[in-house]
Amino acid sequence: MRKLSLCSLIFLYSVCFTAAIDTASNILPAVDNAAQEVIIEEKSSLEIPVEKVPIPAPPLEEAVQEFKVIDIEVIDHDLIEYYKRQYLTDSAKKWLSGVMKAAAPYRAFVIKELQAHGLPLCLQYLPVIESNYKLTALSKSGAAGMWQFMKNSIAPFNIRVNDWMDERRDPWLSTTAAVRKLKENYTFFDDWYLALASYNAGLGAISRTIKSAGKSDYWYLADKGLLKNETRHYVPKFLAIAEILENHDYYGIEFPDPDLEHDDSVQFDEIVINQAIALDLLAEKTSLSSKLLAFYNPALYYGITPIESSYRLRLPKGTAVKAAAVIKTDSFSLMRYSMYTVKSGDTLYALSLHYGIGVSTIQKINNLSSTKIIIGQKILIPSFSETPEYQGNKPDETLRFDGSYIVQKSDTLWSIALAYDVQVEQLAQENNMTINDVLRIGSNLKVPIID
Q1: Element (H, E) at 211
Q2: What is residue 9's three-state secondary structure?
Q3: Minimal CA–CA distance to 41: which of 432, 445, 443?
Q4: How many other CB atoms sit within 10 Å of the CB of residue 150?
């Protein structure tokens, strides 16, 4: 029998693949129409219609890549298939690539923490759906950081939020807390689907749902509509994204792999300090990189360590001794202060609002035993900038879509969501759209205001 040439084989493959795509297009409209400049009138809905259609195949030249199975089972389920289709559109793959490039500085630590606790390594992709892997991510409900912790859930993990810092934005502390939380959930249920659902909805809420349903099966609870809609979609969305990202070469999604031994996220020193220190001044006096100091201490609102409590200062590897020596000899000079003269009508509360620091902080710095101050009294105020009258403002605790964006050519909801560090579903919901709606050039979208 005559052997076919390589060109003939490629031609036959392309013919068959084209026929399969034509068949699929008769079943359901194309998923990836986001590049078309068409007005869509359809409004968003909490319920997502799910239809059985084939997952888009990788390009021919990439089909030889080995497909990897993630370490949490991905079952055959309509919602998982839906999210695979959604995140394999061209726009979504660009979005995933951008998110994973943003994740690059922290992934090595996340992976090593998962390894240390014996958890599935695919959980490294959970921050993709939680925060786009952004440290400053803030939800409408007030959840913050890469792993989206609420203020009322951080106490067991020694994560602190005060006038000086929000440690939910610290990728090292929050990753350690998230891994511990996920491990506790899995230990309780002995089931990763339920453990993930509990990360989203809370262990108590899932336990109550199971007790009411009389069945400890995530997919049963999801299919019967016994979970809140967000949790029903949370697990299949994660599984789809995790499998896609684990096979990013297969699907043609580009992002860097971490160096588990040498990345900055796994190479650092720590020292405990008990005073307010401005990181930029510490960098000047030690010749350390101010950029690296900021990278290692992202929880600090103003780049200044707290005065009311101890702080574990993170430093570049091998610099702890030098930094500790400078801090010991130049403690007061490592903090900027301005002197304020009390005027008629002033109160400590008014000053604290103006300078963005707590009343207790002003009292502690000035050795004040009460909140009473008198006209002409000199008050020492920590200065958060070069200007003595600087007014510090803590980040808002809620995410508001008060800004506007005019749609440009080639924009998609995915690209705009990436630019504004928000989940694409949230952006769509705020604008009464569905996730794959296409945009009209010149139309106005509601977006968060970027500082």
Answers
A1: helix 203-213
A2: helix
A3: 432
A4: 13
List the end-to-end C-alpha distance of the chain, in Å, as a whole number.
70
* Beta-bridge partners for 379: 340
At position 191, the amino acid (one-letter code) is D
What are the structure tokens assigned to 274, written together?
């008990």
Cα separation, 263 vs 269, whole angstroms:
13
Return the number of other C-beta atoms located less than 10 Å from residue 373's C-beta. 16
Question: What value, to the nearest 5°, has the Cα angle with vertex 241 and ends 448 and 417?
Answer: 15
How far apart, in whole angstroms, are the C-alpha atoms of residue 44 and residue 65?
A: 37
3-state secondary structure 271-311: EEECCCCEHHHHHHHHCCCHHHHHHHCCCECCCECCCCCCE
Q: Which of 306, 320, 296, 270 is nearest to 169 (CA)?
A: 296
What is the token pair recorded at 260?
């588990």
What totals of helices (H) and strands (E) does the chain contain, helices first? 17, 6
Please check whether residue 88 is in contact with residue 414, taking contact to mean a CB–CB distance below 8 angstroms.
no
Chain position carrying tokens 């299949």? 236
Structure-token pair, residue 436: 């794959």
Question: Could you give the 3-state DSSP secondary structure of residue 419?
Answer: helix
Give me the tens of pLDDT residue by residue for the chain, a chain 451 residues long. Answer: 444 444 443 444 444 444 443 443 333 333 333 332 222 233 333 455 555 656 766 665 555 568 999 999 999 999 999 999 999 999 999 999 999 999 999 999 999 999 999 999 999 999 999 999 999 999 988 999 999 999 999 999 999 998 789 999 999 999 999 999 999 999 999 999 999 999 999 999 999 999 999 999 999 999 999 999 999 999 999 999 999 999 999 999 999 999 999 999 999 999 999 988 989 899 999 999 999 999 999 999 878 888 778 999 999 999 999 999 999 987 667 877 777 888 877 788 888 877 777 788 788 778 888 888 888 888 878 766 553 442 333 444 567 888 899 999 889 888 898 888 888 888 888 898 887 788 999 999 999 876 5
Domains of the chain, CATH where assigned: 32-266 (1.10.530.10), 268-334 (no CATH), 337-382 (3.10.350.10), 403-447 (3.10.350.10)
- For 348, the token pair is 């400590």
Specify the amino acid at residue 73. E
The helix/strand/coil state of 423 is: coil
* β pairing state of 378-382 and 268-273: unpaired
DSSP string, 214-255: T---HHHHHHTT-S-HHHHHHHHHHHHHHHHHHTHHHHT---
Pairing outcome for strands 337-341 and 311-316: unpaired
